[in-house]
UniProtKB/TrEMBL annotation:
Enzyme class: transferase
Catalytic reaction(s) noted: ATP + protein L-histidine = ADP + protein N-phospho-L-histidine
InterPro entries for the chain: HATPase_C_sf, HATPase_dom, His_kinase_dom, HisK_dim/P_dom, HisK_dim/P_sf, PAS, PAS-assoc_C, PAS-like_dom_sf
Ranges for domain PAC: 253-303
PROSITE patterns: HIS_KIN, PAC
GO MF term list: phosphorelay sensor kinase activity
Enzyme Commission code: 2.7.13.3
Residue ranges annotated for the Histidine kinase domain, each copy included: 454-679
Name of the featured protein: histidine kinase
One Pfam family linked to the record: HATPase_c
Gene3D superfamilies: 1.10.287.130, Histidine kinase-like ATPase, C-terminal domain, PAS domain
Alphabetized UniProt keyword annotations: Kinase, Phosphoprotein, Transferase
């Protein structure tokens, strides 16, 4: 360095190398700072443009701490323009102000705590917060990131997303409720739903579908093969055929089939569905319903209808056979219906005329019309149907007698008169014929009584006189008679005796019916003892013996039962074997009606069976009915005495006691007479 002096110059020098290097370094630093400033300005411009262009709100807050170093507030250092549309704040006006002043709400909604947590934990915090302005709700999602001793908050408006999210949540809730309701509905309606991927043979079943199969939900992995194992064997062929048709035509028609549940119960399932696209695949969605009760009800209803049709057919045939018809009158609206056979009974074709009272009256006999109308009016007023008859003139002018019966009933709040009309013309004629026959029977009975009087006195009187005179002649002139005369007188005596027995038996036979009302308790053991006592001489003479079980008591007529026992035992003694002593065994047993011969009508549940078994000459069983006919004999009167009425009397006595008698025999072995009395 040259410095002027008074008398010259002062030259000083120093080493400037380091200084020059420093200057150069400073210059370089300056250039770098200027470059960095330019870059910073560019970055600030870029950030400014970026903050202007993005839709997010970006803010930076500096912590304000108390003396304990706890964050109590924030200072707003930066906020971009996106804050204005939301809060109407201008960024430059709120810069460097406290958040408690500008955004006091953050201290109440948890935002302040989130900001503090982001700084203290140095962990980014994301949260959602609502913002209310003029009654309008907005939702924001914010991310708080620690920067220095502050926090940078980036906020994005998620109001629309929140709405969609809320709608989705509500939709899911509704779907959950609907699924619950649907599951309950499936249980209640006994239905199930399914999705079937035909190509992959993968199926999804609702829980209740599994239950319909008798399984727990998701108890097994479903496929066509596993489900097929539930199909009823008798429905497998049809089920497979339907499956092929569905796969081929891509169309499902409603059909019903049977399954066998896990527990072995048979159910009817009705199914339907449709093809839809799911995840770019064609699948079948459908429902099944347990219609077992419906099918069984329909089957019962069909059977009931079939039975009803049968009954209607039977009723129609019964009406024709019984010469009757039915009618129904709705007394509420005065409508009426009559069965087809009523038309036929009137010699008309079914439905030939309208069934109205006016139409009926045209068929009533003029002499009976007044009473017919009176009866109808009385029935309608009293609501009581008393049967009545009247004459009808049919379309073919045939006079018939109709009998009317009926009753009132209510159906669907309407009153009805239900009734029957019967053609009793034949009954009327039969009654008239019966009255005629009763008069003839009365006359016949009177004649029979007259005959009884004649037989008991007038016919027997000549026989008694004949017997008396023959006896006197025999006593006085017997010694003077020739041998032939004696024989002739013997024949006369036998003939008279036989005639007296015949008349006596005829009287007994004719009087049996008139004593029906004299029934009383009869001890058959006592009856047998009396008869044995009466026949004691004959029993002793024949050297016979009688063995009897203990016999019961019955309701009957004493003398008739004695006559029955007498006749049967007398026959056993009369028709005894010539080479062995007579033996009669009387066997008793109480039997049910089912043990009697099938061809007879049983009027009692129990019967006393009394069998008279002898070892006499017997008879051929082909005559077992003939021997009970009047005057029927299997032997000549010269071989065995008798009138041929004894067994006929036995049969009539047993019938008079509502019993039955049968006989069987074997020639040379013996006979058996079986008597049944009601128990």
């Amino acid at each position: 360095m040259v410095t002027p002096l008074l008398n010259g110059i002062l030259i000083t020098s120093r080493n400037a190398t380091y200084e020059e290097k420093t200057k150069a370094a400073q210059l370089e630093l300056k250039k770098r700072l200027e470059k960095q400033n330019l870059e910073l300005l560019d970055n600030r411009a870029f950030l400014g443009n970026l903050f202007k262009s993005i839709s997010h709100v970006v803010m930076h807050f500096k912590s304000i701490r108390d003396k304990n170093n706890a964050i109590i507030d924030f200072e707003i250092l930066f906020v971009n323009d996106k804050i204005n549309p939301i809060t109407s704040d201008i960024p430059s006006e709120i810069k460097n102000k406290k958040t408690s002043e500008i955004f006091p709400g953050i201290f109440n909604d948890g935002v302040f705590e989130n900001l503090v947590q982001a700084i203290e934990t140095q962990t980014p915090i994301t949260y959602e917060v609502p913002y209310y302005e003029n009654g309008y709700e907005q939702w924001f999602k914010a991310t708080a990131i620690k920067l220095g001793d502050g926090v940078t908050v980036t906020t994005v408006d998620i109001t629309e997303e929140k709405k969609k999210s809320d709608q989705l949540i509500q939709l899911n809730e509704r779907l959950s409720v609907q699924n619950t309701i649907f599951a309950d509905a499936e249980r209640l309606a006994a239905t199930g739903s399914y999705i079937w991927d035909i190509d992959d043979d993968v199926s999804e079943l609702s829980d209740n579908y599994y239950r319909l199969l008798g399984c727990e939900p998701n108890e097994f992995k479903l496929s066509f093969k596993t489900y097929r194992s539930f199909i009823h064997p008798d429905d497998l062929q049809e089920y497979d055929k339907k499956g092929l048709e569905i796969a081929k035509n891509k169309r499902i028609e409603e059909h019903t089939y049977r399954i066998i549940t896990k527990q072995g119960n048979v159910k009817y399932l009705k199914t339907n569905g449709q093809f839809i696209k799911k995840n770019n695949k064609t699948v079948v969605v459908g429902v099944v319903q347990d219609v077992t009760d419906v099918v069984e009800f329909e089957n019962k209803l069909k059977q009931s209808n079939d039975n009803l049709k049968f009954q209607n057919t039977f009723l129609e045939d019964a009406e024709v056979l019984g010469k009757m018809g039915s009618f129904r009158v709705n007394t509420t609206n005065n409508s009426s219906e009559i069965s087809d056979n009523i038309y036929r009974m009137l010699d008309c074709k079914p439905h030939e005329f309208a069934p109205t009272p006016k139409a009926y009256f045209t068929f009533v006999h003029p002499d009976d019309l007044s009473n017919f109308k009176k009866n109808i009016n009385k029935i309608l007023v009293s609501k009581t149907f008393k049967p009545f008859r009247c004459r009808i003139i049919t379309k073919n002018e045939t006079v018939k007698y109709f009998k009317f019966t009926g009753h009132f009933d209510t159906y669907n709040e309407d009153e009805y008169l239900f009734g029957l009309i019967q053609d009793v013309t034949d009954d009327i004629k039969a009654e008239a014929f019966l009255k005629l026959k009763n008069r003839e029977l009365t006359r016949s009975n009177a004649e029979l009584e007259s005959f009884n009087r004649v037989a008991s006195h007038d016919l027997q009187e000549p026989l008694r006189k004949l017997q008396l005179f023959v006896s006197r002649i025999e006593d006085r002139e017997g010694d003077q008679l020739s041998e032939k005369g004696t024989v002739y007188f013997g024949k006369i005596k036998n003939a008279v005796t036989r005639m007296q027995a015949l008349i006596s038996n005829l009287l007994t036979y004719s009087r049996i019916d008139s004593t029906k009302k004299d029934f009383e308790k009869v001890n058959l053991n006592q009856t047998l003892d009396k008869v044995k006592d009466d026949l004691a001489d004959r029993i002793k003479e024949a050297n016979a013996f009688i063995i009897a079980d203990k016999l019961p008591k019955i309701k009957g007529v004493v003398f008739q039962v004695e006559q029955l026992f007498t006749n049967i035992l007398s026959n056993a003694l009369k028709y005894k074997s010539t080479n062995k002593a007579p033996k009669v065994q009387i066997v008793y047993k109480k039997v049910s009606a089912s043990e009697l011969p099938k061809h007879i009508i049983k009027e009692s549940k129990k019967y006393h069976r009394i069998s008279f078994i002898d070892n006499g000459i017997g008879f051929d069983s082909k005559h077992s009915k003939k021997i009970f006919e009047v005057f029927q004999r299997l032997h000549q009167k010269t071989e065995y005495s008798g009138t041929g009425i004894g067994l006929a009397i036995c049969e009539k006595i047993v019938e008079n006691h509502n019993g039955y008698i049968f006989a069987k025999g074997e020639v040379g072995v013996g006979s058996e007479f079986v008597v049944y009395f009601p128990a």
